[in-house]
Amino acid sequence: MKRILLIAALAVVSVAPATARNNNKTEASLAKLAPSDRFQQVCDIALMEKLRHEKRAYRPDSVIAYALDDPSISGDTLHGDGGAFRSHGVWYQYSFTCAATPDRMRVLSLEYTVGEAVPRNEWDAHGLSIH
Fold first, then answer.
1. N or C: less crowded end of the chain, CB within 10 Å?
2. pTM of the predicted structure, to 2 decimals
3. How many other β-carbons are positioned within 10 Å of the β-carbon of residue 36?
4. Which domain, by its residues, includes 95?
5. Is residue 35 assigned to a domain?
6. What burial class does residue 46 get, using C-beta atoms within 10 Å of its C-beta: 0-12 exposed, 13-18 middle, 19+ buried?
7. Is residue 131 part of a domain?
8. Which residues contact 20 (CB under 8 A, 6 or more apart)?
């Protein structure tokens, strides 16, 4: 299941630039996913965009909401303390709360905190080495 989500995330993120044509492709790709899977994907995409616009020099190329621990869903809110994103070849832990529309197609709010770098010797245990 996680492997399928990652493949879907990479497909969606690869078409995420903000042109209207690509937004339509992104929405079409997202619409094919189950709502719970879509929820994680829209939150991952939103986090990637926010990180790219931060003052810090993050350049995320992969975001995995469930990398270190599974997130929980309560209504239209997804919360997790075990997400990870890769920037410049280093994986960083992050915690987040993401609220989305009921159809899980759009993020309404996203709060996150970037933690420490995930130690290299822990990457294999969390499947991060294959990404």
1. N
2. 0.78
3. 11
4. 2-126
5. yes
6. buried
7. no
8. none
